[in-house]
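INFO  loader      accepted 1 record
INFO  loader      residues=280
INFO  predictor   begin
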Amino acid sequence: MGKGVLIALVLLWSLGPIYWALNSSLMQPVDLTAVPPHAFPPAPTLKTYSGLLGLQGAADNATGASIWPHFRAATINSLVTAVAGTLGTIVVAALGGYAFARLRFPGRNIVFGLVVATLAVPGYTVIIPLYRLMIKLGLVDTYLGLTLIYMSAFLPLALWLMRSFFLSLPKSLEEAAQIDGASRLYTLFRIVLPLAMPGLIATAIVTFLSVWQQFSVPLVFSPTYATKPLTVMIPELASRHDLNFGLINAAGILAILPPFVVVVFLNRFLVQGLTAGAGK
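INFO  predictor   done
INFO  writer      dumping tokens
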């Protein structure tokens, strides 16, 4: 009984806000401010979604302009930066994780410890010097600049995960390949990485989700719709003189669809990859 109640409370805490956002996005404007609030839409409508996607008139009551061009640009920006940041992080983490797991060099454990220790450094402490650096390099409001920032932010965790996964793999296959004359790189790309695919996918999922939900970094480094993602664009729908709850919730529901799809279809790789080092 107690276990069931605990599970119910966890589900309510986790899924309750998502349901309420979906519920609000399907309501008529007059129903959004009803007291007491409606647990279900009295008269469900897709007007907010059609307005958001440019299928029906103007959606922004404050400016009278269509939201669709900005929403489309922000969605593309979110996808591009999330995919680029994930791919860049995975490539470096795979090579670096293998080096820390298999290669012997002076200071290996110290260097790895220092890299992982950067996880304890709050991101906002380096925002100002990083911003000045990006200005000098001309990388503010560019995909490359955001990708490099995301890689530097999430690479320590990715290295940690990949190193743990490589350590869980048996050395015998690598040793057999080297005895047969295979080079270190051939062994890595043709033998080790295929075996490490669950770990790579798990690390990619964690990185993708982390990049997708970023707010403070693009808020500072993406001032225009050239690179501004959904996480920054959606709060801007709330203006000083207008607060369209239905529109904001509809945008939020659409914004969670990509990470939802990623987690649902790749969940088994996530669990397998994150628990890989437990049985070593």
